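Dear colleague,

Following up on Tuesday's group meeting, I ran the structure prediction for the three-component complex that the binding team flagged. I've pasted the input sequences exactly as they went in, so you can double-check that nothing got truncated or mislabelled along the way. The structure tokens for the whole assembly follow below. Feel free to forward this to whoever is handling the docking comparison.

Inputs:
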Amino acid sequence: MSNELLKVENLEVQFKSGSTVTKAVNGVSFTLNRKENIGIVGESGSGKSVTATSLLRLIPTPPGNISGGKILFEGKDLLTLSDKEMRDIRGNDISMIFQDPLTSLNPVFSVGDQIMESIKLHQKVSKKEAKQKAIQMLQLVGIPAPEKRLNMYPHEFSGGMRQRVMIAIALSCNPKLLIADEPTTALDVTVQAQILELMKKLQDEFNTSIIMITHDLGVVWEICHKVLVMYAGNVIEYGTVEEIHDQPMHPYTWGLLDSQITESVEDHEMLTTIPGSPPDLRQEIKGCPFAPRCSYARDICFSKAPEMVEVKEKHFVACHFQTKETRLNRKERSTHVRAVVKS
Amino acid sequence: MSEPLLKVRDLRKYFPIDSPIPFKKSNQSVKAVDGVSFDVMPGETLGVVGESGCGKSTMARLVNQLISPSSGTVEFRGENLIGMDAKKLRETRKSIQMVFQDPYASLDPRKTVGELIAEPLVIHRIGDKASQKKRVLELLEIVGLSHYHAKRYPYEFSGGQRQRINIARALVLNPDIIICDEPVSALDVSVQAQVINLLKELQREYNLTYIFISHDLNVVRYMCDRIAVMYLGKIVEMGTYKEIYENPKHPYTKALLSAIPKESPHDNKERIILKDAIPNPIHPPTGCHFHERCPFMMDICSTKIPQLLDTGNGHIASCHLLKEH
Amino acid sequence: MAESQAILQTTDVVETNERSLFRKLIRNRFAAFGLFIMLLLILTAIFAPVIATHSPDKMNVTKTLLGIGAEGHLLGTDNYGRDIFSRLVYGARISILVGLGAVLFGAVIGSLLGVIAGYFGGKFDSIIMRIMDGLSAFPFILLAITLMSVLGQGLMNVIIAIGIGNIPGFARVVRGQVLSVKQSEYIEVTRSLGAKHSRIIFHHILPNSIAPLIVYATMSIAGAIISEASLSFLGLGVQPPTASWGSMLQDGKNFLVLNPHMATIPGLAILITVVGINLFGDGLRDALDPKMKV
């Protein structure tokens, strides 16, 4: 058995509306090994959620359309499977949890019914066995008195509890891959800490790999081994969390890291920001998508799109300029950026 | 020492709950805000943190009289807003403005940005058309937008730009105090930093006072001079931001701080993982509301409500553990 | 400065609301057809004296019940020898007048009541909406008949009677819309700025409730035209000899076997008008939906 679980090559997703085509995902590639977690970070509109949903071929078609690339899951290209084969994979080998646990649970069925449904869909078990398994799952995700809770409805649970139920459903068939789309964004910090703790614990138990979609770098540091930074539908930097945190090389990653408010930001210093806002994906982007907001941009950045280059082992960056300046720490970086802006 | 700009004493808001039996008055209520007192000094930023349902947003709306409290007083420059006659209240409220959380929902989609920013002037009949227009253009400049944006509609703007419009509208009447209810939580990080910088600049420039409500502890630490931590309608701890972050006294504050996600992948921080979520506010736990989730629970906690104690350095907290010191 | 520079670059140019609304409407073939029918009807009503080939009320006992196209009568004549085409053209005036008048009457009063009920809620809401329930408990036509017999006959009274029947519908649509708009954060913002109720209602709530109101009004015009025809058919509408589609239908029913086109022509006119207006209303509803892009 190869150690490689998922290999995404040059994934492209477009949305069509009338005569305008939005290139939501534009050539995303990455690999994910077994028991490894990858974070996909980016701001709204960066294509991170579309990437995740297209892995399961769940984007609404039309208007959406996976227009190119390969999604190799254990060597099979998911894009070539029939709809039926794909259904067998969803929920069984790959499952997904979403940002809003209230809308992703069906309000008219009890929580137990919903867990059992997912179990019975993929495993040949009797009703009794399914129920046993459901109780076991609820216990595992830390819901007290699971026999009683089984018959309760989603609205009777708090937000954190609902997300636990979603995780129970997602893990009920021992998937090899769990895609989590902003699973803690709607939750309070203390509950977020609970859920992340739970995900780490369950990962050890089930040997599941996790793709974590988030805008919060803190969550990435918490749970991921690798991280993919997306901007305007493109991957602009990709590497291990340590690499990305300690030596980010793309100016956008710098901006993203530096605009986070952390304890190291001094009291009354101004925050570093990325000026402007992301480009309109309905229009053809020439050159580097980040160029209009980049303080280092030169002529070439506006005319030629940068290639993804492996600058160090397992650290890829798509930027025309890889100089020694990129090895600066946060403090030095911000003085440097200011100097560049001035000149 | 100067006088506080805003003095809130024992503010309470109980929302009655509809009885399940028709025509029968229910005697149950949600104690959304349950005896909150604090001062806000001119020019300072008071942060209010807590999880959803702790009453922080209700408190903000009580302070500017969007909803009227069940009891308590709100004094602005020494005058009690509660029970003030309507005309005078309208006048006083010009000095207390608010910026709301959702940049998409807080702008009327059928009005141009110019009309939106000028609206407070129109409502309070200040100046003529020309001077109002001049003021709008001035404010667009101040918040980092351009004069031609005045003719555009809100849907043409990004979240960060809309929040700038909201801020411009809040500034148009030259207020003394702005209540910011989660002004940056709906924004992306890089945009969040832009808006926070703007708020800070404006404060310095116009000597503004802020009440800054947020659930993001990092943002609050960065923005605020003093911080109040709320739990189930009560302030459980209040002090300077340094005191709260470096020397938290209440177990809830400690848990909140420890729940902040890691700063880097090398971080190995010890977590206090709390059990469950905030309890149902209709039937809050007896004694200290936090005792069921508290890792340091003692017998007394489930029977007696702890009082806020002064622990020095202007730092107050309500916990039975503190009595022993 | 660099920041605001970048902001300038990224704001895209968007066309104005009205232009795109019209474009959306025209792109929908059915709506365009509906619009065409409505324009045709309005033009016919305005230029009736020019279009009509004969005087609509002029009788000619020597030329009764002529067939289509006979002796210069485009659509033949009725039992009094009046030109059917000319009566149809003048009848359009009545239909338009009653359709627009009754809907306007119903919309103004209904919206006002709906806004009061939705915005202030509580007792206002209960009282107003119970009265509306009472009004709509009567079948529409029965209500109109009752009102006509109380008010007496005449064009103005037809408009009022049908208008009253329209009030509950408008009140409900507007109330529902107001209830949802009232929840919006921008209403709370406006309150926090110190605005009075009147300003909130007229500057914020009404403009944001207008889209479903317009659609509902368009659809109601068709209903009002039918109601007028029904009332005239029952002899409670406009008085003879004034031509109205309903009264033409009424006159025609006695000659259904002998001279079927006397009844079918006004019937067809009503049908085409109502279908046209409904198509237009459907298209308008889609075009006003902000989720639909050009």
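Chain B is about 30% helix and 20% strand.

Cheers,
M.
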